[in-house]
């Protein structure tokens, strides 16, 4: 399983779109891994997780043929994870030479929004509603949506993804996991965990996690033997409000065996 992290920032990006704060100015000057676009990932170039407004940039930077991915799963409908106006560009009037529909799966809000925005182009898509804690076959993968602590007016999901004997917990956007999610994961083993770290050193783990919560979550799963010595723990989805550079984050997380995500990061498991 190859996981490529296409974007690793929270909704505003880093540097934030209109921001002139000290951290955003520093990110502009440092460049490199300090430049972060809105969060998304793709697995084996077939299964895409979320479709942010930066997707067009991701395609250009990564040299991807976007027509090669066949399945799209959405975590929730915040605009930095779900921009259906651009998904509409895959319909016949805009895109040519595509022989199969794109399958889109997500919660009830994702489904209703797709039907509204994609309307007369729906023949280019198949749309499926995910229910929490049910496992679905998505292409060659098994995908289970788990409840997140994030957007209270809809079923926000994190995803447990299994393929070729390997497993990934795609764990954002979320605060500290709900008990139901911990219960479902209690007998699972994870080869990689990609975790919300939006809040950095800010003392908050509601709706989004911080560094302390990521470390505690790693300790919890170690204690319960849900992870093994080769499991990769990766923090992502950073906000400019935390004021931490990529090197700052590495200094805070690497000593605890936690990697820091960056745009374009590739994970092979």
UniProtKB/TrEMBL annotation:
The record ties this protein, via InterPro entries, to: Metallo-B-lactamas (IPR001279), RibonucZ/Hydroxyglut_hydro (IPR036866)
Residue limits of the Metallo-beta-lactamase domain? 68-217
- Pfam families (UniProt xref): Lactamase_B_2
Q: Which SUPFAM superfamilies match?
A: Metallo-hydrolase/oxidoreductase
Supply the PANTHER family for this chain: HYDROLASE C777.06C-RELATED, HYDROLASE C777.06C-RELATED-RELATED
This chain belongs to the protein called MBL fold metallo-hydrolase
């Amino acid at each position: 399983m190859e996981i490529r992290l296409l974007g690793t920032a929270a909704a505003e990006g880093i540097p934030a779109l209109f921001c002139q704060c000290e951290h955003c100015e520093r990110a502009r000057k440092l460049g490199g891994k300090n430049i972060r676009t809105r969060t998304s990932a793709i697995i084996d170039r077939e299964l895409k997780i979320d479709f942010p407004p930066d997707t067009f940039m991701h395609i250009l930077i990564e040299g991807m043929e976007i027509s090669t991915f066949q399945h799209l799963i959405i975590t929730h409908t915040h605009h930095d994870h779900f921009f259906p106006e651009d998904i509409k560009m895959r319909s016949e009037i805009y895109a040519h030479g595509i022989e199969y529909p794109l399958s889109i799966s997500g919660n009830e809000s994702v489904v209703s929004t797709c039907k509204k925005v994609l309307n007369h182009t729906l023949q280019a898509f198949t749309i499926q509603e995910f229910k929490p804690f049910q496992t679905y076959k998505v292409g060659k993968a098994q995908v289970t949506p788990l409840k997140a602590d994030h957007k209270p007016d809809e079923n926000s999901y994190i995803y447990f993804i299994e393929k070729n004997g390997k497993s990934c917990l795609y764990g954002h956007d979320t605060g500290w996991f709900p008990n139901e999610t911990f219960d479902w994961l209690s007998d699972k083993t994870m080869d990689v965990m990609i975790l919300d770290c939006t809040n950095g050193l800010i003392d908050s783990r509601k709706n989004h996690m911080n560094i302390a919560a990521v470390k505690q979550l790693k300790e919890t799963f170690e204690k319960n033997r849900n992870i093994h010595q080769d499991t990769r723990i990766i923090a992502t989805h950073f906000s400019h409000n935390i004021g931490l550079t990529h090197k700052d984050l590495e200094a805070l997380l690497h000593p605890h065996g936690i990697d820091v995500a960056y745009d374009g990061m590739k994970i092979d498991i």
